[in-house]
Amino acid sequence: MAFIGIALLIAIGLSVIIVSDAGTLAGITQDQVGQIVPLLLILIVVAAGAFSRRIRFSEMVSSVIMWVAIFGVTITGYTYRYELGDFSSRIIGELMPGKAEVNSKNGIATFRKGFANTFTVGAKVNGAKVVMTFDTGASAVVLTGRDAMAAGIDTRRLRYSVPVQTANGMGRAANIVLQRIEVGGIVRHNIRAFVAEPGALDASLLGMSFLQTLSAYTVTRETLELRN
Predict the structure, then answer these.
(1) What would the pLDDT profile of 24-49 be if each residue is shown by its tens digit?
(2) 3-class secondary structure, 99
(3) Strand pairing partners for 224?
(4) Can you name the residues that pair with 122 across neighbouring β-strands?
């Protein structure tokens, strides 16, 4: 087993060279040495197993291939860790649409982007649960007729006299005032809003009449952050 100890010392020595920024070793750069060391450690482990008990050559080759594959998967996962993180965030956004990560101490609510490249926001309007789309292009909060009725608004008495631009083209909406709206633990009262006429809107919008009451809101590639 002495050769295993010698091999370990060699691996440690190579690692020290990498850390100490020694430049090159026998014409091999630090990056190349960094790639060799993990493979050398794998070979040491396999060799230790081979000499501790008698195994067939084919079994030893299979072990080497397995460890190299594990090493490759690990390096690939680390290399693409940010992309994998974005992908997992989008899965969470799709499985739990509108779900906020709330930091009540700092008054921050964070939402994840879904695969449709939109931020879905879970809200409570007059106590009713409403799923909205974050939209800075909307001058105010806009509710669909169904969401307005869920929030206790009598849509039959509304006058749809305000022209609005929607994803479905030009439409009309009615002016209202929301008594209470809560998004990610952030509560506002008496917020100006619209109710879109039937068929004009597919989903309610979280617009500027709410967003402008916040101290800040930040949009990154995959997250929406609202600050009380």
Answers:
(1) 544 555 555 555 556 656 656 555 55
(2) coil
(3) 111, 219
(4) 131
- Enter the tokens of residue 179: 């008594």
H or E segment to which residue 209 belongs: helix 208-211
DSSP H helices, 29-131, are 30-52, 57-79, 81-95
**How far, in Å, CA of 166 to CA of 54, rounded?**
74
Structure-token match 């493979």, residue found: 39
CB atoms within 10 A of CB 54: 6
Residue 101: predicted pLDDT: 78
- Using the structure block, give the residue that is written with the tokens 């050769």: 3
| Distinct helix (H) and strand (E) counts, the chain | 6, 13
Q: 2-19 and 30-52 are packed helices; what angle lies between their axes, rounded to 10 degrees?
A: 160
Fold of 98-227: Cathepsin D, subunit A; domain 1 (2.40.70)
Helices (H), 111-173: 145-150
A 10 A CB-CB count for 213 gives: 13
Residue range 102-159, pLDDT digits in tens: 787 888 888 888 666 788 899 999 999 999 999 998 889 999 999 999 999 998 889 9
CA 83 centroid distance within chain: 10
> Full-prediction pTM beyond 0.70?
no
The residue with greater pLDDT, 82 or 227, is 227
Q: What distance in Å separates the CA atoms of residue 85 and residue 19, rounded to the nearest whole number?
A: 29
**Domain range list for the chain:** 2-79, 98-227
The answer to whether the Cα torsion of 52, 55, 61, 63 is positive or negative is negative
